[in-house]
Amino acid sequence: MAKFHHPSETEPLLERICFNHRLFLLLVFAVCTLVLGYQLTKLKPETSFMKMIPVEHPFIQNWLKHQDELENLGNSIRIAVVAKEGDIFAADYMETLKQMTDEVFYLRGVDRAGLKSLWTASVRWMEVTEDGFVGGPVIPKGYDGSAAALEELRNNILRSGQIGRLVSNDFKSSIIYVPLFERDPETGEALDYQALSQAIEDKVRNQFAGQGVEIKIIGFAKKVGDLIEGIGSIAYFFAIAIGITLLLLYVYSRCGFSTIIPVICSIVAVIWQLGLLATFGYGLDPYSVLVPFLVFAIGVSHGVQIINAIGLEAATGADPCTAARRAFRSLYIPGMLALISDAIGFLTLYVIDIAVIRDLAVAACIGVAVIILTNLLLLPVIMSYLGVGNVFRERVKAGNATRSKVWDRLSNFAHPVVAPISIVIALVGFGWGWYQSQDLKIGDLDPGAPELHPDSRYNLDNAYITQHYSTSADVLVTMVETAKETCSTYPVMSAIDRYMWAMENVKGVQTAVSLVSVSKLYIKGTNEGNLKWQTLSRNQHVLNSSIRSASGLYNPDCSMAPVLLFLNDHKAETLARVVEATQAFAAENNTDQLKFLLASGNAGIEAATNEVIEDAQYEMLVFVYGVVSILCLITFRSLRAVCCIIIPLALTSLLCQALMAMLGIGIKVATLPVIALGVGIGVDYGIYIYSRLESFLRQGMDLQEAYYNTLRTTGKAVSFTGVTLAIGVGTWIWSPIKFQADMGILLTFMFLWNMVGALWLLPALARFFMRPERMVASPVSQQRTETANEDKSNEAATSSNSSEKSINSMDKSMSSSLT
Q1: Any stretches that span the bilayer, and where are they (predicted)?
Q2: Higher pLDDT, 816 or 727
C-alpha cells in the first residue's frame, strides 16, 4: 500500500510537483482535458490552394504579380458532360448542358466572368468570307432545338476552334470550364473546398446524371474535396489502431490497468493536440489530419516504456507509489530528450516554404509537447495509485529469475565476433540504399491525382478527359513581359513565335497558344485563307488589327502576354524538361524590354513546388539530424553515443528512400514529411536503448552482459512498441486515400527498421565506438547507476519504513548527480 511521502529539500522540482501534489495534478489534467475537448468540437477540415504552393518561389511571385491579368488556370474545375447515346447534337443533351451551366454559374466561389461552355457568350466562332470576317456566339441566335438549329450549331462549333478544347474529338461530350476564386469577392472568406465539392456533387452530378448524360469532374478543388471526403474513413483506422494497441498491450502485460492507462493517456494527448490547434486557429487539412495518428503512436511508445519500468520496480517489492517514482526518475530525462528531439525534428519541416507542410510541423510539435505532460507526467501519477497487476509483477519476477534464451541469443549482436559482421552488413545496406535511391524522383510520377488511387472516380474521370480531348488539363503558362503598349510589336511577337516553336519541339508539350496564334489565323483569313500567309506581318497596323479578337491573351495595357503550353502530363520529368528549355530560351532572349518569366497554370505551380521540395529535402535532413545529434551530445556528452544512436537512423532513412524509388513513390508535399517524422519517432528507440546500456556498463558489466540486461528490460519494451506501432500504421495501406496508404507503407517500414537498427546495429556500434573504462559519466547514466545502487541497498532493508528511506536516499543521490 502506498505511503505518504514527506518533501525533501534535495528532491528534483519536477518529481516534487508530480508526486507530492498528485490529486491536484489529476484535477488540473481533468479540467484541461474537458476544456480542450470542447475546443476540439470547433476544429474543422480545411484546405486552401495557396497553402499548397510555395508562395515565395520566383515562379509563384511572377504569377501573383499578374494574377489579375490571367485566366485562373491554376485553380479551376472542368466538368465533362458525356452523352450516353449518340452525340452532343441532340436537343435533350443541349438543354441539359444549358441547365448545368446555369446551375454551376451560381455556385459560391465560381469566377462567373471566366465561366465557359457552349452556352456562354464568350465562346464564339469566326469565319472569313468574301465580305470579310463574320462570327458570333456558338449557340445560334434564336436557337430552338430544332434539327436546323442543331445543324447550325454543328457548323459553328467546327468554325470555333473549340474541338479538342471545349468539345471532345468524337463529339460525344463537351466541357464546362469553371475558374474559381480563392476568396469570395463579396465576403472575403476563403473558398470552402469541402462545401464546393459537395455542392458540385449534389447540384451537378447527382441532379443531372440521370438525364441521359454522364458527368466527369476534375480540377484541384474537386481533388481536394475527394481527399476531405476520404478523411471520414480515417476515424475507422484510428479506432482499429486503438483496438490493436489495446490487444497487444494486454498480451504484453496481462494487466488491465497497464493496458488501458497508456492508451487513455495517449488519447488525452490527441484531444489536447486537436483542441490546441482549434484554439490557435488552425484546421485539419488532408495532410496534417494524419498527425493525430503519430501523436497517439508516440504516446503509446513512451507509455510502454514507463509501464515496463514500473513493472520492473514492482517486481522488486516496491509499492505502487514507490515503483512509479522510481520509474519516473529513471526515464524522465531520456524520455524528455527523446520527445524534445521529436519536437525539434518535426519543427525542421518549417524550413519548407509550403504552408500545408508548415501547418503539419506545428501540429506535430504541439502533439509531442503535450505527450511530455500526458505520458511522462500524468501516466506515472495515475499508476502510482493503481499499480501493476499481480500477473504482470510475477511474470517480471520469473523473467528476472531465469535467463531468457531469446534475449541471450540476441545479445550476441554485441559479441566481438558478431559485431563486425553486423557493421559490414550495415555498410552494404548503406551502399545498396544509396544506389537504389538514385532513382528517387521529385514530384508526381503518375497521371491524374496521385494522392488518390488509380481506380478512384477522380482518376477515372481524368483518364476519360485526357483520352477524348486534344488539350490537356496540365497547362504551364509563361508570362512575356514588355514595355507598355508593345506586346503586339513585331520584335516581341517574333520572339514569342520562336519560343512557341522551341517549346512545341520539347518532349511532353502538346501545343502552344498565344496572341501569335490568333494573329497568324487572322492574317491568313484576310488573305483568302492561303496557308502561305499564316505568318506574322511586319506591318504594325496589321498586327494591331490581328490581335483584336485575342481576348485573354494579353493584358489591358499590352505589357504582358501569356504563352499557354499544354502538356501531356504533369510528371516531374515533363515539368523539368519544359522549365529547363524555357529558362535556356530566356537566358538567350531576355532583354530590358522583353522578359520570358515562369510560371503560371497548374503545371507551372507544380513545377515551382517540385523545385522547392528538391532543395528542401536535403536541408530538412541536415536540420533534423543536426538537431537530434546536438541534443544527444548535450545529454550523453559523448560523440561515441551520438554515433551509436544516429547511424541506425541514417541507415533507415536511406533504405526508406530506396523503397520509395522501388515503389514509384516520388518526393512531394504528401511524402516529404515522412522521413522527418520517421527519424523523430525512431530516435526514441536509440535513446532508451543507449541510456540503459550505458548504465549497465558503468556497473562493471562487459558489453555483451550489459546488452543482455538492456534487452531484458528496455529492449523488450522497444521491440513491443516497434511491432505495435508498425501494425497500427500498417492498416493505412487499405485507406481510400493513396497518399495515406503510401505513408502507411513508409512509416511501417521506418518503425520496424528503426526498431531493428536500435536492437541489432546499436550494440555492434557500441562494440566499435565505446570504451567503458574511458567513459565519462553523463547525467542520464550517472543518475541511473546511482539509482540502481541505491535500490539494491534499499531492497535489503526489511523495516516498515524501507520504501520511505529508499526514496529519500535516491533523492539525495539524484539531486547531487543532476547538480
Answers
A1: 23-41, 234-252, 259-283, 289-310, 331-355, 361-392, 413-435, 618-636, 643-665, 671-691, 717-737, 743-765
A2: 727
Helix (H, G, I), strand (E, B) or coil at 78: strand
Cell of 530: 492561303
Rounded Cα gap, residues 782 and 784, in angstroms = 5
What is the distance between the alpha carbons of residues 749 and 656, in angstroms, rounded to a whole number? 7
d(CA 553, CA 547): 9
d(CA 696, CA 119): 80
Strands (E), 40-100: 76-83
Q: What is the mean pLDDT of residues 348-357?
A: 81
The SS3 call for residue 680 is helix
Please provide the distance, in angstroms rounded to a whole number, between the alpha carbons at the two ends of the chain. Answer: 32
CA distance 284 to 271: 14
For 699-712, the pLDDT digits (tens) are 888 888 889 988 88
Q: What is the mean pLDDT of residues 312-318?
A: 85
Calculate the alpha carbon distances from 366 to 291, 349, 380, 444 in Å.
10, 14, 21, 30
Residue with cell 498491450: 249
Q: How far is CA 732 from the centre of its chain?
A: 14
Q: Collect all residues with Cβ–Cβ distance below 8 Å to 270 and sequence separation of at least 6.
A: 292, 295, 296, 299, 367
Q: Which DSSP letter does residue 764 get?
A: H
682 touches 762 (CB < 8 A): no
d(CA 208, CA 98): 11
- Residue 497, C-beta contacts closer than 8 angstroms, at least 6 positions apart: 516, 536
Count other C-beta atoms under 10 Å from residue 85's C-beta: 10
CB count, 10 Å around CB of 38?
A: 11
Residue 729 confidence (pLDDT): 79
> Quick one: which of 579, 578, 596, 575 has its CA closest to 587?
596
Residue type, 775: M
Mean pLDDT of all residues in 339-343:
79
Bond prior to 599 in cis (omega within 30° of 0): yes
Give the closest residue to 174 by CA, choosing from 214, 225, 114, 226: 214
Sign of CA dihedral 134, 138, 144, 146: positive
- Backbone φ and ψ of 798, nearest 5°: -120, 0
* Alpha-carbon radius of gyration of the chain: 33
3-state secondary structure of 642: helix
Q: Which domains, and CATH codes, for the chain? A: 1-41+254-402 (1.20.1640.10), 71-225 (no CATH), 404-438+637-796 (1.20.1640.10), 458-607 (no CATH)
Cα atoms in the 13 Å half-sphere on the side-chain side of 335? 29
- State pLDDT tens for residues 218-236: 887 888 788 777 766 777 7
The alpha carbon of residue 493 and the mean position of all alpha carbons in its chain are separated, in whole angstroms, by 43
- Looking only at the bridges linking them, the beta strands covering 173-179 and 132-137 are unpaired
C-beta of residue 458 within 8 angstroms of C-beta of residue 223: yes
Q: Write out the H or E segment, with its range, that includes residue 567.
A: strand 560-567
By the 10 Å C-beta count (0-12 exposed, 13-18 middle, 19+ buried), 803 is classed as: buried
Residue 770: name the closest of 580, 512, 778, 664 by CA.
778
Task: Kindly report the length of the chain.
Answer: 819
Identify the three-state secondary structure at position 454.
Answer: coil
- Are the C-beta atoms of 367 and 294 separated by less than 8 Å? yes
CA dihedral sign, ordered 105, 108, 109, 113: positive
Locate 442 and state its grid cell.
521529385
Name the residue with higher pLDDT: 371 or 537. Answer: 371
Contact 110, 104 (CB under 8 A): yes
Could you read off the pLDDT of 412-439 as tens digits, one per residue?
888 888 989 999 999 999 999 999 988 8
Which pLDDT score is estimated for 73? 58
Kindly tell me if the per-residue pLDDT of 803 is higher than 70: no
* Residue 117 scores a pLDDT above 50: yes
In the structure grid, which three cell numbers stand for residue 396, read together?
Answer: 517480471
